[in-house]
Design brief:
The protein is 42% helix and 14% strand. With 264 residues, the chain is α/β, with parallel strands linked by helices. It has a single domain (49-167, 183-263), classed as 3-Layer(aba) Sandwich (Rossmann fold). Strands 1, 2, 3, 4, 5 and 6 form a 6-stranded mixed beta sheet that branches. Helix 2 crosses helix 7 (229-263) and helix 3 (91-101) crosses helix 4. The chain is globular. The N and C termini lie far apart (99 Å).
Length: 264
């Protein structure tokens, strides 16, 4: 028979063990479930395989010299690579092919076609960084997608590329002068000024963070995308590409309706 002191020690040990088991069970029960991020879906027919996008390095039209256009371009390529239904060429491969062809930046239809053919791309995306403020944070990104004549994106017009004309205009956004002989224009165009103090942007950052961060991280949580310009640029690139894909949905839907009307 245990003496009172030994009995008390045994009781305390049992209570401590019970408390530890309770903490483990409670901790497991409260652990948040993993949640995949919302995907961006491209509108293309992938029966013959996923179409290939090539992204030309973005021009810096922001007015500030400390922005790294290649770092921002890498984020755009990474965002494009996450779109379901397309493939995106790595930026260094596009740059290497441009150097091999002696092209600093596509400035004519012939150069764009030459680069696209050399890369085997179904579309070329050109763009600009139109604003950059790491303290707010805020960034402006303009992108234009030009389908190539390979026919994979069902585009009824030809390519005309001059990324030097990619400038941010709040009221009217026109990349190229109008050509009376043929309607040279991009398939889809977006121009986004993404301000980290805008409430809609903050809401979009919250949605973007779901499935892209450790659910047990409690220091900053989704706000880390607003605290780091690098992470904010990652979000902004995703947002810009997502808007470009939305424009592609509308463009291909219009093309499909026109094609059906022409067959009647």
């Amino acid at each position: 028979m245990l003496n009172p002191a030994a009995h008390a020690r045994a009781l305390r040990s049992a209570l401590v063990a019970l408390a530890m088991v309770t903490l483990v069970i409670t901790g497991c029960a409260r652990k948040p479930a993993l949640e995949p991020p919302a995907p961006t879906l491209a509108p293309y027919d992938t029966v013959r395989g996923e179409p290939l996008w090539a992204i030309v390095p973005l021009r810096n039209e922001s007015g500030v010299s400390f922005v790294d256009p290649f770092a921002v371009s890498d984020r755009v390529v990474a965002a494009a690579a996450q779109v379901r239904g397309v493939r995106a060429l790595p930026l260094n491969r596009t740059i290497a092919q441009m150097r091999a062809l002696g092209i600093d930046a596509p400035s004519s239809p012939e150069e764009a076609q030459q680069l696209a053919a050399a890369l085997g791309a179904d579309a070329i995306i050109v763009g600009s960084i139109t604003a950059y403020d790491p303290y707010k944070p805020a960034i402006g990104i303009a992108l234009a997608l030009y389908p190539t004549p390979r026919g994979r994106l069902e585009a009824p017009h030809r390519v005309e590329v001059d990324p030097r004309r990619l400038v941010y205009q709040p009221t009217e956004y026109r990349y190229f002068p109008q050509r009376p002989d043929r309607p040279d224009k991009p398939g889809s165009v977006i121009s986004e000024h993404i301000d980290g103090e805008n409430h809609q942007v903050i809401h979009d950052v919250q949605n973007y963070a779901r499935g892209r961060q450790d659910p047990e991280q409690r220091v900053l949580g989704w706000r880390r995308y607003l605290a780091s310009m690098e992470l904010f640029t990652e979000f902004a690139a995703h947002h810009a590409v997502d808007q470009l894909v939305r424009q592609e949905w509308m463009r291909t839907e219009r093309w499909a309706r026109q094609d059906q009307s022409g067959r009647r």
